[in-house]
Amino acid sequence: TFCNKLCDDAVNTINELNNKLTDLQNELVTIKKQLAREDKERKTKCDHIKLIGIHNEDYKFLLTPTCKIPTTCAEATLQPNGAYAASGVYELYLADFLPHAFQVYCLQDPDGGEPWALIQRRQSRETDFDRDWIDYEHGFGDLNANLFLGLDKIHALTQSRPHELWIHLENFKNETGYAIYDSFAIGNADEEYPLNKLGKYNGTAGDSLKYHLDQKFTTRDNENDNNDWINCAEECTGGWWFIECGWSNLNGIYLEEALAKTWYKYGVLWKTWDSYSLKHVHMAIRPRS
């Protein structure tokens, strides 16, 4: 009958729709599995990149947007509970300024604020800071000990967003001082990395850096100081933003206590705080809040 035919057609239609729905469900399961596999592959690839770094422009696409490597120490150390992880070596990536990720020592803030990126540290004589331009440009040392992060990375960090600078000093009497500048930035390689921004000073160590503002970086093989008679990097040892030759040089020779008062002019100096070579110093930066 006509009614039976309609019922049969309806049943057939429902069966066809059920079959299509089953097929779609199976396809969805397949797609979910594929996405899960791809996500796992991306995470594995990112973990590998974080471990080894990327030093080839051909692989730049691997880092973004899927890898999401942090751009600051705050991002790198932030935990799910809102606290910051312990001080240590972490990886950052600034895609607009450097073609590769790089490692940096992230230092916890003593007052519980956002962590700092160490750009320089002196604590022993183990690392020679009397070096050529290429070493200062790309960095050297041990990120867990004596280090200079590299002018290229310092430029990238300070150009990516406004930064502040914290300088910590300690002498052989175990006295400590500090200098904080509410802004800090250096120029690029073509400009020879001048100290082109230095904000308001606050601290206990005096301001030994303001005299060096706008100076290009000088090394023993690339002189940019304003001294007509000598190369300050050769005379004072170590690369710095020398003028004539200036009031500070945190990259001078590391002198043991016995020599800190006699050979001080070649040492690690911050003249507005201590006349002699220092025992421990670090320079650290972080985005300005």
From TrEMBL:
Residues 7-41 form a coiled coil. Pfam families: Fibrinogen_C. It comes from the Eukaryota. Transmembrane segments: none annotated. Keywords: Coiled coil, Disulfide bond. The keyword Transit peptide does not apply. GO terms for cellular component: extracellular space. Residues 64-289 form the Fibrinogen C-terminal domain. The keyword Coiled coil applies. PANTHER family: FI21813P1-RELATED, FIBRINOGEN/TENASCIN/ANGIOPOEITIN. This is Fibrinogen C domain-containing protein 1. It comes from Zeugodacus cucurbitae (Melon fruit fly). The lineage of its organism: Eukaryota, Metazoa, Ecdysozoa, Arthropoda, Hexapoda.
